[in-house]
Write a structure and sequence with these properties.
This protein has helices spanning 2-5, 16-23, 33-36, 46-57, 74-83, 94-106, 145-155, 178-185, 193-202, 214-230, 232-259, and strands at 64-68, 86-91, 113-117, 130-136, 156-169, 209-212, 263-271. By secondary structure, the chain is α/β, with parallel strands linked by helices. β2, α6 (94-106) and β3 (113-117) form a beta-alpha-beta unit. α4 (46-57) packs across α5 and α10 packs antiparallel against α11 (232-259). The two termini are 34 Å apart. Bound molecules: S-adenosylmethionine (SAM).
Length: 274
């Protein structure tokens, strides 16, 4: 699975964040979290989106939080820093996990985070071990929705919170585009919104409140693409023309999927029955 996910142009070369930090004079040594968190968020609206989860789930001192699909670890570090909760960050890709560990150590947050390099479908999880399970833009990648939802409900304490931002399917791309869509999005659990809600109920989350983020994320991805093009020379000065092309392809594909009405966005908070 790890080699396939790399076909999505967000994922080659996670070390590029170290190049961005070096360009800001932070080539080694301690990292201020306010600088780091401008670079390490692989979802929409950066730490503002995380603060919604912290408030809605009332994540606090000493809570055990599990993040599914943690990328560079930016969400996990922000939550741990803001709340003094302990965050276990599970990431599939070995190279992202390795860079995430380095960033966490340099941010001085080692004691508040546990990084785990594993496929969420395979990793050992404690029964009723977590107060909250959170995830940003990772669930649609994971095959077998019923299976990963079952794992989440088993590892949550009764009454625990499940908060996520995710993609859903509005319309399948035309037949001739399906292979390209698969390569550039790596969608393994992309379901229509009504199925999204019913499968949450089946997994023991009967009170899920879903917010449709599609209009917001359509505007966000279009603005992100325009700003990236505007800053082409600045980005190429750090990452070279090849680095620009990779991320440009990713930003262009995502903006297109939203603008063309193929994918939508959803945010929800749900409480485990019991
Ligand atoms: C778009 S990134 C978001 C990362 C992070 N949540 C953030 O917002 O900054 C999604 C992440 O989910 C990870 N992922 C995908 N499938 C996974 C799986 N089966 N188990 C664990 N992580 C997975 C990917 O490798 C990727 O790093």
């Amino acid at each position: 699975m790890t080699s396939d996910i790399k076909s999505m142009q967000l994922y080659p070369r996670p070390e590029r964040i170290l190049d961005d930090l070096r360009a800001r004079g932070l080539g080694d040594g301690p990292l201020p979290l306010d600088v780091l968190s401008q670079l390490d968020q692989l979802h929409y609206h950066g730490t503002d989106a995380l603060d919604v989860a912290i408030a809605e789930c009332r994540i606090g001192l000493g809570d055990q939080v599990l993040e599914v699909g943690s990328g560079w670890g930016g969400c996990a570090r922000h939550i741990a820093h803001r709340t003094s909760a302990h965050v276990t960050a599970i990431e599939l890709q070995e190279d992202y996990d390795r860079v995430a560990r380095e960033l966490t150590a340099r941010a001085g947050l080692d004691a508040c985070l546990t990084h785990v390099n594993a496929d969420f479908l395979q990793v050992d999880l404690p029964e009723s071990g977590f107060d909250h399970v959170v995830s940003w833009l990772a669930l649609f990648h994971i095959p077998d929705r019923a299976s990963y939802l079952g794992r989440i409900s088993r590892t949550l304490k009764p009454g625990g919170h499940f908060f996520a931002e995710d993609l859903y399917l509005i319309a399948s791309p035309p037949e001739e585009e399906r292979e390209d869509f698969r390569r550039h999005l790596f969608p393994n659990s992309l379901v229509p919104l009504p199925d999204y809600e019913s499968t949450l109920k089946d997994a023991g989350f009967s009170d899920a409140t879903l917010t449709d983020m599609t209009d917001d994320w359509t505007a966000f991805t279009a603005a992100r693409l325009a700003a990236f093009r505007e800053n082409r020379s600045g980005y190429e000065a750090i990452h070279g023309p090849g680095g620009y092309e990779v991320i440009h392809t990713f930003y262009e594909k995502m903006a297109g999927y939203f603008a063309r009405g193929l994918v939508g966005g959803v945010r929800f908070r749900a409480t485990l029955d019991g």
